[in-house]
Structure formats: C-alpha cells, structure tokens
Amino acid sequence: MNRQELIEQIKSKKSFLCVGLDTDLKKVPQHLLSEEDPIFAFNKAIIDATAPYCVSYKPNLAFYEAFGVKGMISFEKTIKYLQENYPDHFIIADAKRGDIGNTSSMYARTFFEEYGIDSITVAPYMGEDSVSPFLTYENKWVILLALTSNKGSHDFQLTEDNNGERLFEKVLRKSQQWGNENNMMYVVGATQGKMFEDIRKIAPNHFLLVPGVGAQGGSLQEVCKYGMTKDCGLLVNSSRAIIYASSGEDFAKVAAQKAKELQEEMAIELERT
Length: 273
Prior knowledge:
The protein is α/β, with parallel strands linked by helices. The protein contains twelve helices and eight strands. The protein has helices at residues 3-13, 38-50, 62-65, 68-85, 101-114, 128-131, 153-156, 167-175, 195-202, 220-227, 240-243, 251-271; strands spanning 17-21, 56-59, 90-97, 119-122, 141-147, 184-188, 208-210, 234-238. It has an eight-stranded parallel barrel with strand order 1-2-3-4-5-6-7-8, surrounded by six helices. Helix 2 packs across helix 12 (251-271). The two termini are 23 Å apart.
C-alpha cells in the first residue's frame, strides 16, 4: 500500500485507527480455548467486528512467537485472512527488528516476501545498514522507533548531546537521509503529548504510528492537536482497550463498539484539518 492509498482509506473511512492484535491466551474469552486454534479464532472475530472502523491492523510478533510453531501458524493464518478478506487494510508487523545488513535483509525477506506484509517496526540503534535493507522494497514501509511511551524511554531517547540535540531528534534527522515520507514512518507514543510539536518540526509530513491511546492513558485529542497534518499523518493504535474490552461471549460485539467510539472521535478530529 502506498502513501496515497493509505490517505484515501483514512479519508473514506473517516478513521486513522490501527487495531493491535496482541493476542494473549490468558486474556481471551475462555470459551475460545476449546477451539482448534484459539488465537486465530479470537483474531478472526476481532477483525470481522472492527474492520469497518479501522484502516490498519498490527499483530505484535511477541504474542505469537511465545507459542512457538503453533503461534506462528496462527500469525500466518491471521495475515492471510486479512489479505484475502480485507485487502484495503494496512498491515503492520510489530516485530522491532534491526540487525547487521545481511540479517536485516533476511528479516525484510521474511515479512515482505514470505508474508507479504505492508510494513514492519524497526529499531534504529545499529544505524543505516541495519535499516536500509527494508527500504529496498517498493510500496513497503519501515516504521522506525523514535520516541516511545514507556517509562524507560527517558533512559536514552531524551538524552542530549553537547549541542542540546536529543537522541530521538538525531534519529529523526539522520534517518531522513535513508528513507522518505513515502516509505518511512515513526513510532511516537501517545503519552508524549506536546512533544509531537518538536517531532513535527523535524518530520513535518511523515506518518506517525502512535501507540498508547486507551489502556496506556494517551489522549487522542492531544495527539491530534500537536501531531496531525493536512493528510492526517497519523495511525493511532489501540490494542487492549479494544480487543479485551469484554471477556465474555460478546467480546467481538464490545470490541466493535469500542472501535466505533474511537472512529467517531477520529472523524471529528479529521473534520478540523
């Protein structure tokens, strides 16, 4: 999916919602555990219920790799189900890969060729040669970690050099020499609030993947106030607040309602741009 196609989806659905598929068997409704593949059964129900209200899905690889081969089969089935039934949805592999060049090349091959996924989250710590292999694929995206919402983000990301430049700012500036607004996005946590202003000074047009709205306490309105562009420029992720809103047999229905509520808030924000 290229940039213009993504923008058109956002405009037509009046939504920039990304639903995180962080599927934990300890949290899924108990009645699904008797299914042959409870992870896929849960994902399928969530996808079918929330698809009208979102433009993207983000399975987190850790929740699938934790179950070994069976978990990765569930992941593959989920990706194929999305591609076959909801091809207009942008798929993000939340894998946070990033290694020396030949290793990154294999990661890129895995997610872009084997699975055919639209994008992957990448850690930039090892520099250009760890990121550039992902950028060789047409209409595929790197989503680079920039300023995250966890407490530990302050350990490194906000440290300053002798010129007062913070590390996340250096990542934003330097990485724009590798990719551009058509193949690179940045992860920025929703809890960073007014810091979005500083990010937009450096990356005014790039899309931002924004986790942390909902269970982590980030404000959608604040994210939009400081981070939204004329093309929206945001994919706001919500995982737990949607997929685990109910642990009963009505879990999919409740998830749909939560997604719809967020979509309606997003439609209001889009009207303001």
